[in-house]
Specification:
With 231 residues, this protein is an all-alpha fold. Helices cover 78% and strands 0% of the residues. It is built from nine helices and no strands. Helix 4 runs parallel beside helix 7, helix 6 runs antiparallel to helix 7 and helix 7 crosses helix 9. The longest helix is centred in the N-terminal third of the chain and has 35 residues. The protein is globular, with a radius of gyration of 20 Å. The two termini are 13 Å apart. The relative contact order is 0.15.
């Protein structure tokens, strides 16, 4: 469990690495484009739904403006809830660059033994992770609603769910490149995996830090897997 803190510290120190900065720039740009595209699509669909339900100028003056505002707020609110899914889906396609940069600097022997994943394998892993995230978060929704009266209950439920999911995704980004070499199972314990996912899930709730979180998580997972594997 103590391996989490050194892994995160090492990952933070390497954020200034040009190779990592390039990945960060690309992933942030793609994430923002996807986010804006989904927001526009969500606004359009919600606007048409509210219009079909009768919210228009025929109902009262200014209804069109109110409908547009309500649609925009609902679309952005929904996307805020699925930000993690979008960000992690994007980073799946750049994860190899982050992992390679960390391994080249700190674990050259492991880097030379790693296998490269095909675009199809990366896409499959990303879509599978996104599907799990949507499914588990929807499954947790009834419990979150039951705990709504506690104020903090829903936030804790979704944090715990996403901590478990993120920990697994981040570990797999690294381990899939090395699971053919010698070991049958990843050396990272479930507790360490959960704590790593929890730290990244918490960062994703912080404005601006949420852009760094996926890249930082991938780098930290690389350190964690290799440091545990060497023991």
């Amino acid at each position: 469990m103590t391996g989490i803190f050194p892994a995160l510290a090492l990952a933070l120190r390497q954020l200034s690495d040009p190779a990592v900065m390039r990945v960060l720039g690309k992933s942030v740009a793609v994430t923002c484009v996807l986010f804006l595209a989904l927001a526009a699509a969500g606004w359009f669909v919600l606007d048409r739904v509210l219009q079909a339900l009768g919210l228009g100028e025929a109902l009262f003056a200014g209804a069109n403006d109110l409908r547009a505002l309500a649609s925009a707020l609902l679309a952005l609110g929904g996307l805020w809830l699925v930000w993690r899914v979008v960000a992690m889906l994007v980073i799946q396609f750049f994860a190899a660059d982050v992992v390679q940069a960390v391994e080249a600097r700190h674990y050259p022997a492991a880097a030379s033994a790693a296998r490269s994943l095909t675009t199809a394998q990366e896409a499959k892993a990303g879509l599978r992770a996104a599907g799990r995230a949507v499914l588990f978060n929807l499954a947790a929704l009834p419990l979150a609603l039951v705990l709504l009266f506690t104020g903090i209950g829903p936030a804790l439920v979704f944090w715990a769910i996403n901590a478990a999911l993120l920990g697994r995704e981040l570990q797999d980004m690294v381990w899939l490149r090395h699971c053919h070499v010698g070991q049958a199972a990843c050396p990272v314990s479930p507790t360490e995996r959960f704590l790593l996912g929890g730290a990244v899930a918490a960062l994703m709730l912080v404005p601006f830090a949420n852009f760094l979180a996926p890249v930082l998580g991938a780098a930290a997972a690389t350190h964690l897997v290799h440091r545990k594997g060497s023991k």
